[in-house]
Write a structure and sequence with these properties.
single chain; mainly beta; four-stranded antiparallel sheet; 44% strand; flat
Amino acid sequence: MKLYRFLYFIFGLIVIPFSCFSQDISYQNAFTNLSFNFPVEIQSSNDGTNRLFVVEQPGRVKVFPNKSNVTTAELTTFLDISSIVSYNAGQEIGLLGLAFHPNYLVNGYVYIYYIDQPSNYRINIARYQVDSNNLNILNPSSGVIIAQFTKNQTDSNHNGGKIAFGPDGYLYISIGDGGGGGDPQGNGQNLNTVFGSLLRIDVDIDGNNPLETNPDLPNGNYEIPANNPRVGQSGLDEIYAWGIRNTWKFSFDASGNLWGADVGQNSYEEINLIIKGGNYGWNRFEANSEPSYGNGTSLATTPDIKPIFLYDHNAADVSITGGYVYNGSLTSSNLQNNYIYADYVSGRVWALSYDTTNGNISNELLFKTNGQFISSFGEDEAGELYFSDYGSNVKLYKLTETFTGPVTTPINGFGEWKSISTGINGIVETIAKSTNDVTYVGGTFSSAGDINVSNLASINNTNEWEVFSNGSNGSIYSIDIAPDGTIYAAGDFTTIGGVTANNIAKLDGSTWSSLGTGTNGPISKIRFNENGTLFVGGVFTTAGGIIVNNISKWENNTWTALADNFTKIAGTNNEIRSIGFDENNNLYIGGNFDTAGGVSASRIARWNGINRSALGSGTSGFVQAIESIGDYLYIGGNFSIAGTKSVNRIARFNKNTETWEGLGNGLSGNVNTITSNGTYIYIGGSFDTASDDGNLDKIVNNLARWSVDSGWEALGPNTDVGVNVRVNSLKFTNNNTELIVGGNFNKAGNITTNNIAIWSENICEENSIIPEYQINGVFESGNNSLTVKEGDEVVLSMLPNNLSFSITLPNGSKVNGDYNLGTITPDQSGTYIYETSNGCIENLEILVHSSVEVDQDNDGVLDEDDNCANTPTGDSVDSNGCSIIPLDSDNDGVYDSEDDCPNTFVGESVNENGCSIIPYPSNQFQITSIGTSCIDSNNGSISIESITNENFLATITGPNENMILPFTEFLTVEDLDIGEYNLCISSLEFQNFKTCSKIIITEPQPLSVQLDFDSLTSSVTLKMNGAKEYSIEINGKSIQTDNQLISLPLYEDVNNVKVSTNQLCQGQFESTVVLENTFLIYPNPFKESLSLDLKSLTSDTVEIAIFTEAGVLVHSETYLVKHSKIELNTSAFSSGIYFLRLKNDKVNKSFKLIKQ
């Protein structure tokens, strides 16, 4: 039976809540005897043999007969290329795709997609042929490279990886945008690169289609379908669809529809029906949203195509895995003809029904796995559907109508829950606490309690909401507080508190200010170290205009990159999500990178202020939380392995032995936050269960605590534990007795609340403690302040009387239980702090009046009643001892009690509030200066504009100038030399008025460029000065930048680098960088002759062949390499594009040339 079914028939934007699931669909271990190592693809050969093939990311394909009782003896390695792939667990590299040729039964061809790294990461499409004597083995010597595409950036992720033959017999290839946050190279809307697109090629070279002309090697190993959308137009012929971020799996249904699941950045996961020539919008759009990092992107083609379905990240579903339209033997209407897909991180599996004729859509949650990741779906020959877990020694699972579900066990929790007013109407991302017991909350919300706010709010020490800022125009992801009390907030915004700030700002008192120019991308985490230096991590390349690559520090009002002292490389090659420090002030960063400072480090790295280092072999997935506690570094995320240990999303690193350990058997879902109260480790995220030994899965619901002695424990009364959706942030308050929990939920334990709540071992409500006191033998209670006279007998107690408690005295000492102060004296005045054994706290203020009558200012009012203890002698006073004669301290005619400006100078005219009358407002004059247009131009200018038309005089003195000029409303002084000028403006109507300014006329500096070449990374770093914006041209390709320091990769053997500005008089920088061991072919473009410098070639002979753009051979000859330089006569060549190939036993390389 089904509990509920949500059906939505909607056009346009589609976001469907996932709150309950079908009870007639489940999953089971398909092959109990088999395990696999990081599987990423499941395929069948569709040849009638009923075999299944599993792609293991480290570089192997396994094959076995499709039967439930298959044994390990029947498991065979179909292909092993582990020696040539570049692989790192959890990253999107390695062996990723597998496809069988439509005519596999005849030709035995199998195609694979893998990543290697000869220098930069490279995509390879290769073909192998089955062994003629054994169908379960591919002939390793039969491998042929069909296509190779080298990435135009260093990021390892977003490689797509899925390949499949379509109904048309062509091979479709999913290639992501190349990685990094927000598509930093703009590949999604660049039709001249394969990245950010879906390709379609013809692998049968039979003359039915034209050969490819892509400049990437090898040449001529596939054809281009003649009706591909960019054939005969701008862009690459291979491209079938574009504007794609990272389609992680696509499939064709029985009607030929192409379904693609595109993994999102920060906000949405999407399902697309991919069509020929479709532009799916990335990075201008993420699903239907417009992210800040895409503001400057123009669509390559219009219009863009919106997803047929999307879901957000609010319920911890953050990474889609595409599946198939089901056509197997299961009869459930939830499956048949519906698109089955999942979320890799959360483990939820859904069925999507879509009517292509009218756009009607419905989506149903089928089930959620018990901690298994879902890396891929696969079909067998009968159309039954399977999915793979991800990790070492993991299983394949099969969809079934026999409901088993994960076996989980409810357990009794600890403590109680209470709400904070009505909570927050959006998602809480971060919680920070100040030293004065104010708690700051950031996220994405517009109200806190009954107060209107904008993504920021505060909670006072009585757990009441307060507005502490005007808020931001975007999400707040992280808040931290400096040692001096300044509040820092970071996230994805451009304004905060009414000021412009790019993703980060600080609040000093009541004023927000930016941190320089901020960052050029969202910030995920900020954190101060013990020295007061702020470290900032996220998805950005620059901070303060300098290249930092996802991590930077803010110190002494300056941004600084974290460059490794040995490699000189700054930052990481992918995003950062977590920051921590140990007791030695070492910095730890976590995220989705595999190098930090150029040093190999899998998703977590350490920086000692000089160099970076890895923590063993790191983790197999994102690191999203880091906390140093005692001898251990606790980390959480979506990984299954840390070091070499299976740990399931939570682990700890022993800082003394440098080894990884698990926390029991870990958790069933993502970890977002970690904290501690000294006794337990508290973990929040999106997980249902926790396990101590792998045998018992305890239901904890997204929040749990752990200790060595007690293992995993749930939080809440009885079995009403945890929260119902997701926890993002945890913060202890009230002397570590109360845990504030923030995230996305509407239930915490047994209470209803909105996205924030308090958990405690014992909840301290109002009046949990009532101070009780005996004065001269009489008991009283109920007040938190007490006034007694010197000599009174005072005993302190507490209600209710059945609780044990202690009292901290004003001198800091502590007593237990009732406390007899005896005959009280004035020096016993102060604050007495009550604290119960369960952590509840209340204060009692005691004031002791002296028995001696004292009137120090002789005004007739005793000091104990005198509110004005220093009244001047002779003044008449009221009953409180305060003067009743009005004072006018600055003699301006306005009494001090009414004087807003009590220090006005003698003789100044004042208004009724006692403030000076100024004849003109502060904005009376707008003064503008313009520097000289170029060096030695002497054409600077100063302009003055008055908001009123009156008679003024402007006195201007400076280099070769001394002039007095009258004006009424406008004045412009031109042809000024560079230098410093003094400008004073006076009024003919107000003789005493005069205002002066200092103005500097500047000129452009000569362009200065320093070029540093890094042979290890084949890149150049340009240090530029003299302008606000620079134009950089490398081999004819130009970019504009306002960064003075920029690193750029070099892709050609000979690289012509030019730098200029928009001012010709500043000059132009030119340099040629030749990569080592390369061949020089010049000039290019060429005319009558062509020279080849083969100085790096050690062979005796070389074949030189030249082809036209259409592939026609126009020159071929073998040359003796005696002198390294060869001259070719090209006078007979027509104008156009040619390809020159050098080939012998040691080299096979092609070059693109142009004949003028």
